[in-house]
């Protein structure tokens, strides 16, 4: 049984007792200060529940690893890795390779970036991972800072900052692997992962040969305008926002909005979106991105699905539209990585 199902009742209980457990995580201290950890022996209810919450996240990740190996281990090899990133951080991730790799052969690589506020390696990504590997790619899946399942320090979020740095570092790590052709690396991201993908190709336009963004969060400032107050408050507490909402710290939110840097994109880009998306509404996000890509004469293709079932999660639905997302993604990657 999936970990989310196994532990959903306890997560719900924690949500009732500690609705702000994730929101009250202290900001990451400067590098010249000691990291502050929670008291593991605390008798206070809030501290105990925070500890249990982190333990459950860890159980989810560990269970998903086992689930993947049980389902696909005979076809795809999963290797947990810890790769270096900025500020001397070491980031968890997973490399996926064919079980029948040919000795001495160099494979193209793909960095696959998950979405979610505090998401992690999860079962809904399995089919896409397997599709990429069986299509001839080595896949790097970074669980960047802000992902759950790796303790309270790693859980600390930083939209558009540490997530991007970690994903760029994961691409560097992927390029050093002996089975990977360092000149043929692409990137694919969904939702927040799409946002990170866009920021990555904007900040380092030559790093990736090709990119795919699916239902990306394109305008972070706009995103903050329609999210519920509790989410807005949690985001505002991240270090780069200094505890302030956009009205008092506008530049910080604009800085992490990919919509503001489309002119810097040089990587061939595939944009996939759904008109029925209540998480990142098409007209507010991908629709505006498409218009700017056209205006700037960028190398890109786009396909917009009309009312695809699944809403924001439509790429992972077992539907014709979901299957088509995989087909288009593979074809776009092949065009630039298998020439």
Notes on the protein architecture:
By secondary structure, this protein is an alpha/beta fold. It has two domains: 1-25 and 41-72, no CATH class; 76-219 and 257-337, Alpha/Beta hydrolase fold, catalytic domain (Rossmann fold). 39% of the residues lie in helices and 17% in strands. It has eleven helices and eight strands. It has helices at residues 3-17, 45-72, 126-134, 152-155, 162-175, 192-203, 220-226, 229-236, 250-255, 286-295, 320-337, and strands spanning 76-84, 90-98, 107-113, 138-142, 180-190, 210-214, 269-274, 300-305. The chain has an eight-stranded mixed β-sheet, sandwiched between helices. Strand 3 (107-113), helix 3 (126-134) and strand 4 (138-142) form a beta-alpha-beta unit. Helix 1 runs antiparallel to helix 2 and helix 5 (162-175) crosses helix 6. It is globular and about 55 Å long.
